[in-house]
Amino acid sequence: MNNKLQAVRGTHDHLHDLMYNYNYIINKVSTISSNYGFKPMATPIFEFSKVFKKTLGESSDIVTKEMYTFLDKGEEEITLRPEGTAGIVRAIISNGLIQEMPFKAFYHGPMFRYERPQKGRLRQFHQVGIELLGVEKEQADVEVIACANQVLKELNINKSSKLHINSLGNIHDRKIYIEDLVKYLNNYKNKLSKDSLIRLDKNPLRILDSKSDDDITIIKNAPKLRDYLDSSSKDSLERVLEGLDNLNIKYIINDKLVRGLDYYNNTTFEFITDKLGAQSAIIAGGRYDKLMKQMGGPDIPGIGWAAGIERLILLSSIKEIKKKHIAIIPVGEESNNICINLAQELRNKNIPTDMAYSGNLKKRLKNANKLSSNFAIIIGTDEINNNNVIVRNLETGEQEFINFADIVKHIERILL
RNA sequence: GCGGGUGUAGCUCAGUUGGUUAGAGCACCGGUUUGUGGUACCGGGGGUCGCGGGUUCAAGUCUCGUCACUCGCCCCA
């Protein structure tokens, strides 16, 4: 126990159960998003640091405190990706994919943020997400949200989560709003919470969703972002909401919903739960119309979301459905090769087949039982001489002799 | 980064006001049955009590530090 090697803080090993759940979720999102026209893609796990610094906001917490940044041996400043969107947009620019608009991508993989670990909050965590670029119309917003909604539905966590939606307006209007908000809040400097004082110069919007009672009272009379939205932002939100109504997707308009990343504008949304303690967001996203231009590409709008896979796993009660499978048990050395060949034959037929590596018949049956095999095939000297095998039903204990030539067909039949 | 809680076998946990060889259940291995498992009975392995200091004749039990997990703040997926 002492000096035992352990995983780095905030990282987890994905053992079998976790991996089954992980794969289950990836497959679900993959299937659903592909029905919406999204195609799989992956970008590197690390990028030049500027990819993130430029886009996420120089003052955001993620950039200032949470990035895993290092110099590689070529003295390049590299960062382990803290989120997926910046890398996807970079890849679109790098690969000249701007001709393929609209561009619809589905991705998943590890993300890294140096945070204090908690339940549902890790330093290496995994996200699955979609991005839709090149569509200005609100149809895109609705489609992307509908996709997220369906994912939650099919994972059976739609009942424990709620969709919150807001518009952040365009970047210009938001800037003016922030200036006014800061002006207003400056009058209450002595009453604001400590945290909010810090946020006042770093990220004033965050004060809007402060949990401090004093802050909440002050915010009540603060200027509202809604009043600063221009008519196109307002209309845009209206059209998104109409689209959601049309699809019967329920939502809560939350004008305090703010995102941690700077690149968002207009539609932002989060699927929120109260079942994960301090962590509330399970799927979050929004529009990022100026991101690509900001990164040096053409002026192409985008919208997308990302979900925390660990959070999805915590919320959904996935049960692994085990495929029926066979254990082959040789008795005595001379049947070994026959058994190995039979195992291969069954595997070629797509029948999961296992063979215990050692031990007597008793031990191997025990192992088969532990693997919860459905049937055991027993082959020993007697069987070889009689040209048959024993097929034992491990649930009922019944067993029968099957002619060796018929065994594969027999197994295929009983496994149905 | 800040504050609270926890840390004893692979897992879930006991461990009395500090007292000498640290326990249970489950799991694991073996035997009763050397060609028949899942039940039963018997036996076995496995812990320097997260780690490191300190107090004490004596520490799993008290204390400090540290690491990890956890809860809240923060942040967010």
Give the overall pLDDT as a whole number. 89
Q: Hey, roughly how much beta strand do the residues contain?
A: 15-25%
Distance between the termini: 47 Å
Q: Percent range for helical residues?
A: 25-40%
Secondary structure: number of strands? 16
Rounded to an integer, what's the Rg over CA atoms?
Answer: 28 Å
Overall CATH class of the largest domain: Alpha Beta
Contiguous helical run count: 15
Report on the architecture of this protein.
The chain is of the alpha+beta class and 416 residues long. It folds into two domains: 16-170 and 230-315, Bira Bifunctional Protein, Domain 2 (BirA Bifunctional Protein, domain 2, 2-Layer Sandwich); 326-415, Anticodon-binding domain (Rossmann fold, 3-Layer(aba) Sandwich), CATH 3.40.50. 38% of the residues lie in helices and 21% in strands. The protein is built from 15 helices and 16 strands. The protein has helices spanning 16-35, 49-56, 61-65, 85-94, 138-154, 171-186, 194-202, 213-220, 231-246, 291-294, 309-315, 336-348, 361-370, 381-386, 407-415, and strands at 39-40, 46-48, 68-71, 77-80, 103-112, 124-133, 161-167, 252-253, 265-273, 281-287, 302-308, 326-330, 353-355, 375-379, 388-393, 399-403. The strands form three sheets. Strands 1-5-6-11-10-9-7-8 form an eight-stranded mixed sheet. It has a five-stranded mixed sheet with strand order 13-12-14-15-16, sandwiched between helices. A three-stranded antiparallel sheet has the order 2-4-3, covered by helices on one side. Strand 15 (388-393) and strand 16 (399-403) form a beta hairpin. The structure holds one RNA strand of 77 nucleotides.
